[in-house]
Design a protein that fits this description.
eight-stranded mixed beta sheet, binds nicotinamide-adenine-dinucleotide, alpha/beta
Length: about 260
């Protein structure tokens, strides 16, 4: 992958998938900025990769506006920051009569929507105008296989990933007219700090191996090279990324 001259932004770039993608983008020649809310991890990853590392809470539209105003254009954006509600669900008491939806607090719900959905909506809204004006750009959204299959222990996580999948599909036809590509990466379980101890037990019970972040990096590379607008790249253990293209849109993209 040769991405020299590209100005890249990775949200949730201090840890896990985001940090691994940021590292790959640096190796491919991009100028990379990582953003996150975890200041300690940001500092460590920023120093390790020798990239610009800044605090940005992706769930805040004001923070996005300030951030974009303070920076030159980005032409490669990985909207990746995300959380689960497993801290209170999979790591909490496992009473089958107390489903996760009922046990979750309003604050936990708002936070999950804020990071996983608002973070992608606000991020896309912040970077799309300049990409369209310049008639170039790539946006990669980290969704999940949860956009396709049920995740019973964390239904709100499933909701958020389904939501961003819909956003990617619906934005892609118009963006394609401007040479801007948006696609989604949909990994199964990946070995990152996002997966808590109880979640690891549950995944082991399912007989699902945890993937290395490199597999997700490979899928992001594939999405950037192939540039299939609106595509969802499914990432499963020991397989090449699987292209799940959206159905052809039966509507005119620019209705009168
Ligand atoms: N690990 C998996 O099994 C898996 C599978 C499919 C999809 N994903 C998705 O991959 C993405 C990255 O997750 P990961 O597995 O690398 O986990 P991670 O916890 O290692 O990284 C997520 C990063 O997002 C940051 N973050 C959280 N809230 C934020 C906010 N408000 N603003 C900015 N940054 C914020 C965290 O501080 C963290 O550094 C997420 O969207 C996640 O849903 C993960």
């Amino acid at each position: 992958m040769n991405l020299s001259g590209r100005n890249a932004l990775v949200t949730g770039g201090a840890s896990g998938i985001g940090a691994a993608v940021a590292e790959a983008l640096v190796k491919a020649g991009s100028t990379v900025t990582i953003v996150d809310i975890n200041q300690e991890a940001l500092k460590a990853t920023g120093a390790r990769l020798n990239v610009r590392a800044e605090v940005l809470d992706v769930s805040s539209s004001e923070a996005w506006a300030d951030f974009i105003a303070a920076h030159d254009h980005f032409d490669l954006v990985h909207l990746n920051a995300g959380i689960t509600t497993h801290r209170n669900v999979l790591d909490g008491p496992t009473d089958p009569l107390s489903p996760p939806l009922v046990r979750m607090t309003d604050d936990e719900y708002r936070r999950a929507i804020g990071v996983n959905v608002d973070g992608v909506v606000f991020g896309a809204r912040a970077v799309i105008p300049e990409m369209c004006e310049r008639r170039t750009g790539d946006i990669v959204v980290t969704a999940s296989v949860a956009a396709f299959v049920p995740i019973p222990p964390d239904p709100i996580y499933g909701l958020t990933k389904y939501a961003v999948s819909g956003l990617v599909k619906s934005l892609s036809p118009r963006l394609a007219e401007y040479g801007v590509c948006i696609s989604a990466i949909c990994p199964g379980f990946v070995d990152t700090p996002l997966i808590g101890e109880r979640a690891r037990d549950w995944i082991a019970e399912l007989g699902m191996p945890l993937m290395k972040t490199q597999q997700v990096v490979d899928a992001v590379s594939t999405s950037l090279i192939r540039r299939v607008n609106g595509a969802h790249w499914i990432v499963l253990p020991d397989q090449d990324p699987i292209l799940h293209e959206q159905a052809t849109v039966p509507f005119p993209t620019n209705p009168q």
